[in-house]
Design goal:
The chain is built from eight helices and ten strands. It has helices at residues 8-22, 28-37, 44-63, 91-105, 150-154, 166-181, 199-209, 221-235; strands at residues 4-7, 73-81, 84-87, 130-136, 141-148, 157-161, 189-196, 250-258, 265-272, 279-282.
């Protein structure tokens, strides 16, 4: 027997509310990271950029305006408890309806085209969403939304390394990807890294890594140390805030990993711009 029932309307309402808030309110951990970055940024131009970003987030919240004109892909993660019964036609359609209402009510830019190659006509409601649905134990439903801008997503990359490439190969690929991106993803950035799994699993891990609260390290001390090392090396590149030079290119490096095949070592880098928007709720 199911312990809880969640209706289609509850999903629609939750997704709508989350996107209305996520697009206009920068998470507290990101705001704190901006404040901390001011303590180490020596470039006057870089400091000015960070100060403007802090001012921008205040205005966006006070006036319920989008933090950035690119209000992003509507990326949604749902962890669905096995003891929860869904009452409705389709979870996917319910999430899309929530996205549709939020982007219309918030007057957010709609950026999704219906076909990637031939038609490229705007769907006019920012759907379909990108939904990652995972079944978990329990009687809770956790919904996390993450509006993801196109500029930073375009700078992301994946590489199927050989096991012999090892740690040095991972470091080189990450640094090459960030250096090649330069100022395009609007630094200060957050670097999400996925290691292991298959081609698609690795990419998903890198996306999920961006959801971790800034300042929280990977629980495995070896990966935590690698996060620290990569953050130091990335900030030595001198790209700086908005690519104008400085010590603060990245606010954090978050790594997620998964077992992989003996013949492979996939690595994915998902770059997040300074407008690191995400919001979650548990039903």
């Amino acid at each position: 027997m199911f312990k809880k029932e969640i209706s289609e309307d509850q999903i629609i309402f939750a997704v709508r509310k989350l996107f209305l808030e996520a697009v206009t309110e920068l998470p507290e951990d990101v705001c704190e990271a901006f404040e901390e970055s001011l303590k180490i940024e020596e470039s006057l131009m870089g400091r000015s950029v960070i100060e403007q970003l802090l001012k921008n987030k205040d205005i966006a919240k006070e006036e319920s305006l989008a933090l950035c004109q690119d209000t992003g892909f509507a990326v949604v993660f749902i962890e669905w408890g096995s003891d929860v019964y869904f009452r409705g036609k389709s979870i996917y359609e319910a999430v899309n309806e929530g996205v549709r209402r939020a982007y219309s009510e918030g007057y957010f830019r709609k950026s999704i085209v219906n076909d990637p190659v031939f038609d490229r006509k705007n769907t006019n409601d920012n759907t379909p969403c990108i939904l990652h649905l995972e079944m978990v134990n329990g009687d809770k439903v956790k919904i996390t939304v993450a509006p993801k801008g196109g500029g930073s997503e375009n700078m992301s990359a994946i590489k199927m390394l050989k096991p012999a490439d090892g740690l040095d190969g991972i470091k080189s690929f990450v640094l090459e990807t960030v250096e090649k991106a330069g100022g395009n993803p609007c630094p200060p950035i957050i670097v999400g890294i996925g290691i292991g799994g298959t081609f698609e699993k690795c990419a998903l891990l890198s996306k999920k890594a961006l959801l971790r609260k800034l300042g929280e390290s990977n629980p495995d001390p070896r990966y935590a140390e690698l996060e620290k090392l990569l953050l130091i090396e990335i900030n030595k590149l001198g790209i700086g805030p908005m690519g104008l030079g400085g010590r603060v290119t990245a606010l954090a490096v978050n790594i997620e990993y998964f077992p992989c095949h003996i013949a492979s070592l996939p690595v994915a880098v998902n770059i997040q711009c300074n407008s690191a928007r995400h919001k979650e709720v548990i039903l």
